[in-house]
Amino acid sequence: xxxxxxxxxxxxxxxxxxxxxxxxxxxxxxxxxxxxxxxxxxxxxxxxxxxxxxxxxxxxxxxxxxxxxxxxxxxxxxxxxxxxxxxxxxxxxxxxxxxxxxxxxxxxxxxxxxxxxxxxxxxxxxxxxxxxxxxxxxxxxxxxxxxxxxxxxxxxxxxxxxxxxxxxxxxxxxxxxxxxxxxxxxxxxxxxxxxx
Length: 196
What we know:
Blueprint: E1 2-8, E2 13-20, E3 40-43, H1 50-58, E4 62-66, E5 73-79, E6 87-95, H2 98-103, E7 108-115, E8 120-126, H3 133-142, H4 144-153, E9 167-173, E10 176-182, H5 191-195
Parallel strand pairs: 3-4, 3-10
Antiparallel strand pairs: 1-2, 4-8, 5-6, 6-7, 7-8, 9-10
């Protein structure tokens, strides 16, 4: 079994819960969510599907996700990056294959971030061109709040049921709403995870 949860971080209360048999791929969860205009959805790379993400974009919602290996993106523009923040590039890109371009004809923003403390590199894709690049990286980091939510509430759920839990979340920053979709199974959450 797999539990998909959209967590509203304004109160750490789930606003969407779906229990599945675990055979359905996580990306299909995006078909069940009605994107909220102005909200930002932060999701793991398992949710990277250009057609579904374009539906979020068309609805006026924003998203932040990581790219997968093998995804072809062509750079259109490079933007200035702040020094000393871990941001190594901030670019406007388009998908590089005809099929993908048919599914997502608009531009993405690709933000590369280096976590020097943990020696990890991240490449984020978003349709939000307004927020600073570092904020985009911090949004992705916030998805670990899902893991903290699960860890703090796991005593109420049997171990057999939580063997393969998937958790999304929504957070509030200023007057913008943000949501996160996380596909990681239950993991030990450490300060290292939170730095990632």
